[in-house]
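Q: Predict the assembly, please.
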Amino acid sequence: MIEGVTKLAIPTPFRVGAVNCYLLEGDPLTLIDTGPNDKASLDALDAGLGELNRTVEDLELLILTHQHYDHVGLAAELKERSGAKVAAHELLAGFVADYEAAMILEDDYAAAVMELHGVPEKTSTALQERSRSYRRYAASVEIDHVLREGDVIDAGERTLTVALRPGHSPTDTIFIDTGAWSAFVGDHLLGHISSNPVLHRPLDHEADPRRRRPTLIRYLASMEETAKLDLEELFPGHGENITYCRDLVYERGQHHEERKERIFAEFEKGPRTANDIALRLWPGLPVDQAYLALSEVLGHVDMLVDEGRVVEEESAGVITLRAAG
Ligand SMILES: [Zn+2]
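A: Predicted assembly structure:
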């Protein structure tokens, strides 16, 4: 860990486990990410700050890495209690300004994608119900410092440069500490697991489920951009710090390359929907993982379509994929 930075691992009620928040001592006293809007998470954050002889009320700046509620859910509460300013990329600022409305659009988009790719209505309905019940883990917050690519922001004793790295979500932002050869990366890169390339509603163009963003292609490009920075240490949103960023990015690339070939092998047996592929790859997958699995498959399909090896055909509102030629 670099000087003046403390990692606070805040427990969450989600499958992913604890979320990392980072306290940056100095002026302004800064917290990067907040944990979800949940009593147990807030208690843990209060206790964690207490051990450092700090309180929520001392916070002067909150920086947010991306739109997922385990990272931004408590921002409104912390801002209210401390009067801290909140900083986020402009795409994220728009999203969290009205979180409820953003989530409704998000769910509608996911439902349209699922219908188009053969996910049974029962699964889609269950997922939407779950998503509605999870909205309480977030709250809308007004962003005071709207950040753009290349902006520089003072946080604690450090100076951080803003870079958008879409892939895991469209709002993934990393904050590069050039002086310390390090960066706070949210879920852009995690050491212990491969981050899901979630097919979210695009925030910078029309949300047409038939013209989806190639999430995984963008994500791989984002990872390459980060690898090129040659940073010594990354501070992720979950798990341990990352010290071999280039190796990790190479590993992730290999992993996706292998999965892409495995998916292509399924198409060689015959036409399939993306949902068929997801069920073949992950038999017995819990319902709450269905959209993540579909996103994963579609991400690889985008690569195969790009390479001219798979084509999509729509009939009666459902897209079938088959090997080209
Ligand atoms: Zn996330």
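The first strand starts at residue 5 and ends at 10. The two ends are 53 Å apart (CA to CA).
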